[in-house]
Write a structure and sequence with these properties.
There is one protein chain. This protein has no helices and 6 strands. With about 80 residues, the protein is mainly β.
């Protein structure tokens, strides 16, 4: 709902045999509506370290602005995980 923050939780697990550092990039579809979705908080904007086999739950909180164009029925958010050296 417009004007009400909402939180998405997701689980990340390191399946590698070594430590990894990862962060995420948020992609909004359709792209022309990106300016109507505000990212309030995200635990993975900065890289985090996960040890081999470690599993963590992270959250992202968003706010949809009330001025969405007429006829808008959905915004899709996709997470792209970036593993850093």
């Amino acid at each position: 709902r417009s004007g009400e923050p909402f939180t998405i939780g997701f689980t990340v697990k390191n399946r590698a045999s070594n430590d990894i550092r990862t962060r995420i990039v948020h992609m909004v579809d359709p792209a022309e509506l990106k300016q109507y979705l505000d990212l309030v908080e995200c635990a993975l904007l900065l890289p985090v370290r996960l040890r081999p086999g470690e599993e963590q739950v992270y959250n992202s909180t968003y706010l949809v602005r009330g001025d969405l164009p007429d006829g808008t029925k959905a915004l899709d958010v996709t997470y792209e995980f970036k593993v850093e050296p």
